[in-house]
Design goal:
The protein has helices at about 5-45, 45-50, 60-65, 85-90; strands at about 75-80, 95-100, 110, 110-115, 115-120, 120-130, 135-140. It is α/β, with parallel strands linked by helices and about 140 residues long. A hairpin with a 2-residue loop joins strand 6 and strand 7.
């Protein structure tokens, strides 16, 4: 009778482990990803990315997309971490720059006009305000 070596036992256990992992892929991984894709399509990129990360501001970014031209500059202030990190890609092709990079009274930046709109009864430059938990929009 042959003796089973330690290498053979480790090899068999490794194959069982790999087989178990592969058997779980369809049920766990694929169904989770399919659910993510479905939620992304239903909610849209802005709401999906912000709300699934516990942040607000989807309405503010949607407002910017609806009330500003595509080729303009949107100013921002506040906390650059959190929701504001998503803003440039979610309102593209608009350029998003810090308010300090644009002098007061300027009408354009790098050849692009500043986003001007009316919001809350005020007309002026569109400003995104970032906080760790979301984004708001103001007109100044």
């Amino acid at each position: 009778m042959k003796r089973v070596g330690a290498t053979s036992v480790v090899l068999v256990l490794a194959l069982i482990h790999i087989g178990w992992g592969l058997a779980r892929v369809p049920g766990k991984v694929l169904s989770r990803r399919i659910g993510d894709v479905r939620a992304y399509r239903e909610q849209g990129p802005t709401r999906y990315l912000l709300e699934n990360n516990g942040m607000g501001g989807a309405e503010a970014l949607q407002w910017v997309r609806e009330h500003t031209p595509e080729h303009c500059v949107v100013l921002w202030t506040g906390d650059p971490k959190g929701a504001l990190e998503f803003a440039p890609s979610l309102i593209a092709p608009r350029l998003v720059i810090p308010i300090g990079a644009c002098p007061p009274g300027a009408q354009d930046y790098a050849g692009l006009p500043l986003a001007i709109a009316e919001h809350g009864g005020r007309r002026g430059r569109v400003l995104l305000i970032g906080s760790p938990d979301g984004i708001t929009v103001e007109v100044r």
